[in-house]
Write a structure and sequence with these properties.
With 232 residues, the chain is of the alpha+beta class. The chain has helices at residues 3-7, 21-29, 86-90, 111-120, 122-147, 151-165, 181-188, 192-204, 220-227, and strands at residues 32-36, 41-43, 51-57, 60-65, 71-77, 82-83, 97-100, 104-110, 176-178, 208-211, 214-217.
Amino acid sequence: MNIIREKYYYKCNTILDGVRPAVIKELDANAKTLSFKKNKTLFKEGGYPDGVYKLVKGKVKIYQRNPDGKFQIVYMYTKGEFFGFRPIVSNTKHPASAITMEDCHLVFYPKAAFLKAIDDSQVMTKNLLMVLGYEFNVWINLMSSFSHKSVKERVAFALLILNEKFKKKADEKSSIIDLGREDLASFSGTTTESCVRILTQLKEDKVLETNGRKIKLLKIKELFDIADIHDA
């Protein structure tokens, strides 16, 4: 079931792949190591970017405020991923906000240092273009799929994406999804009450098991059927 990784998943950790050591050394010389507790806002929607983050430990959610005032999680980042670079590259404001989901350790690269590294490295420029292009495809696929699914299908779909996202190894069949129900509901585009009701039903059907906020998928194929996700 590689369709999730092919169409709906990305891991933004390749920006510095193949970049000359001298460029990375200069970038690291200007970087700062930061530690934040859970629920710390890193940047806000509409704010001007001042640098790029690399997540060393923990999880960060990216969310937008809907016209009705509710928050919608649009994606989550895990260990090793870079984020916050899109508005710097495009010279725009942040299109979304970022907040830590648990205690986090990060590396912060100031805007000027990050832009200089891009100027100094054609490889880094190429990496960024590839990442931005691929992530654009992922966003389109996600929006298209979520928009026409029922609530139950969206929750199942979100679980499949997060299962891939939280895997420690790519060849693992199932991971432990450690996520609060409010965050899962927000990512699925539904209410917390509806999300909890669907999880309870899926647990009773032995499609998954829960332990507190932790979720483990037991029947991956059945969840694909529920989410109405199939290989083309």
